[in-house]
Design a protein that fits this description.
five-stranded mixed β-sheet, globular, alpha/beta
């Protein structure tokens, strides 16, 4: 009789542990599926291959790591092909509040230089093209928006927070790395004027 009780208690405990384990696994799977794609991309294993990337992490005073990404217009853009003009590389996502707050400011400065004196590359993190395209239409953005679908470029640039903006001079040298936001119109224009060799 006592042996039967022990067996019964053992079976009940085993079943309980299995149910708890299954519940934890289910919660984990749900969490992974509901997180924004950009968050999943940013925490993807660093060992994943990163094609079309060169050099190491960016440092002020050093050559900016080169990369090639496809834009919303389905055209590939390579950073090194923009050599000869200053470039502002902005890492962002649609779910990022500070990113949305600074996007109109980036657009204002971009529109002030219609001759293409400098380039803006808005590198979106891990979101679908349709979602990003709708966002660009909503905010009336005209600068190139690139899709870093697996956050490969973000990992090379050691992006830890969004937004992160890298200011690069005509020779491809990193001159400023700005983490966080939102950046004001005045701040953006000051950085661009400095890269253009003009007095802010």
């Amino acid at each position: 009789m006592r042996t039967s009780r022990f067996w019964l208690i053992g079976i009940i405990l085993t079943c309980s542990l299995m149910l708890v384990g299954a519940a934890l696994m289910a919660v984990g799977l749900v969490y992974m599926n509901v997180r924004p794609a950009s968050v999943q991309a940013l925490v993807a294993p660093a060992a994943e291959s990163t094609p079309a990337l060169t050099q190491g992490a960016p440092q002020v005073g050093a050559l900016a790591p080169d990369f090639t990404l496809r834009g919303l217009d389905q055209k590939n853009v390579r950073l090194s092909q923009l050599r000869g003009k200053p470039v502002m590389v902005n890492f962002w996502a649609t779910w990022c509040g500070p990113c949305s707050a600074e996007m109109p400011n980036i657009e204002k400065v971009y529109e002030k230089y219609p001759n293409g004196d400098f380039a803006v590359l808005a590198v979106n993190q891990g979101e679908y093209a349709d979602q990003v395209s709708g966002y660009a239409d909503l905010y009336h953005l005209h600068f190139p928006i690139l899709l870093d679908e697996k956050a490969q470029v973000a990992r090379v640039y050691r992006v830890q927070a969004l937004p992160t903006t890298v200011f690069i001079d005509r020779d491809g040298i990193v001159r400023e790395i700005h983490i966080g936001g939102p950046m004001t119109t005045e701040f953006i224009e000051k950085e661009i004027l400095t890269l253009l060799g003009k007095t802010p």
